[in-house]
Design brief:
The chain is about 20% helix and about 30% strand. By secondary structure, the protein is α+β, with helices and mostly antiparallel strands.
Length: about 300
């Protein structure tokens, strides 16, 4: 892929292909979650007021037999028809894994650690950053594709040596009592460096957490605000731009509380649509940024960002 540069005042929008391979060892979090294999790392950067925001493509892969994951409570005929109308196949999808970095001017904040340290670090390097540059790591929730990169080896060495960590209190408490091997290996050793917040809690000036429970018991989203401009980082509120965002009541296998997750989707997406602010989704097609319109009561349309954030 060819590098390119476009200016937005002093902003830089860059794409660079950086091949890497996630280890396929059976004990790796990437393999345990089924997210292994060669992947590319890309970055996309834009200005948000005085902040600089970068979405990082830490991994992508094709997945088949897709209605075992999305739309589990609708008929195969309805699923196929909705897919056809949206020009996507009904038997497979491309998954994306997109951490986000916010540079506030005083701190560099990483949201989620990705599938693996290798994947996220490759994407950080594409954005001109290193592990040592990260001051804060925010974990939106504790599924394996968000915590896998917190440590960089089997000894549990923290990937981000200078960082403090922020996560939701409800989320941490749930996994601390769940007997989960990934949590115990990746998150628990960092507990002494962690700050726990709730709904409305502050990560840094201009970055506010909001409860968005359902996908996991303590899943959180984050409003990022600077200079009168805003973006909402929705994490895994919706995991596909059609099959869960456009149809928030369609069940998603990964949602731990499906009824609560559907209600959260409606609430969060309705807020973003009403406020007309851009949204960043961890699993949206890269660069993971778009806008949401409510087309009917409880139904939404996702429009990928084009050049709006470059101007």
């Amino acid at each position: 892929m060819t590098d390119f540069n476009v200016s937005r005042r002093t902003a830089l929008l860059t794409g660079a292909a950086l091949p890497f391979a996630v280890s396929l060892g059976a004990s790796t979090p990437a393999q345990a979650d089924g997210h292994g294999g060669p992947q590319n790392a890309l970055q996309n950067t834009f200005d948000l007021g005085d902040f600089k925001v970068s979405t990082l493509l830490a991994g992508t892969r094709a997945v088949g037999d897709i209605q075992t994951i999305f739309g589990r409570n609708v008929s195969a005929e309805e699923f196929a028809e909705v897919s056809r109308k949206n020009f996507i196949p009904s038997d497979q999808a491309q998954f994306f894994f997109t951490p986000t970095v916010v540079q506030t001017g005083s701190e560099t904040v990483l949201f989620d650690a990705g599938l693996s340290a290798a994947g996220t670090l490759a994407a950080l390097n594409a954005a001109g950053l290193s592990a040592e540059d990260i001051d804060v790591v925010v974990i939106t929730h504790m599924h394996g594709d968000h915590i896998g990169g917190l440590t960089s080896d089997d000894a549990g060495t923290p990937t981000y040596p200078n960082a403090r960590y922020v996560t939701g209190q409800v989320e941490y408490d749930h996994w601390a009592g769940a007997g989960n091997e990934r949590f115990d290996g990746k998150v628990r050793p960092l507990a002494e460096k962690m700050e726990f917040i709730g709904d409305g809690g502050s990560v840094a000036s201009g970055i506010t957490g909001m409860a968005a429970f359902g996908h996991t018991p303590g899943h959180m989203v984050y409003r990022i605000e600077s200079g009168g401009e805003q973006v909402l980082l929705m994490a895994d509120t919706a995991n596909h731009y059609v099959w869960s965002l456009s149809y928030p009541e369609w069940e998603v296998r990964f949602d731990m509380d499906k009824e609560a997750a559907a209600a959260t989707r409606k609430s969060v997406l309705g807020m973003v649509a009403a406020d007309q602010i851009p949204l960043i989704g961890y699993h949206m097609p890269f660069p993971g940024i778009g806008y949401v319109e409510e087309v009917t009561d409880g139904r939404f349309r996702y429009t990928p960002a084009t050049y709006q954030l470059m101007l």
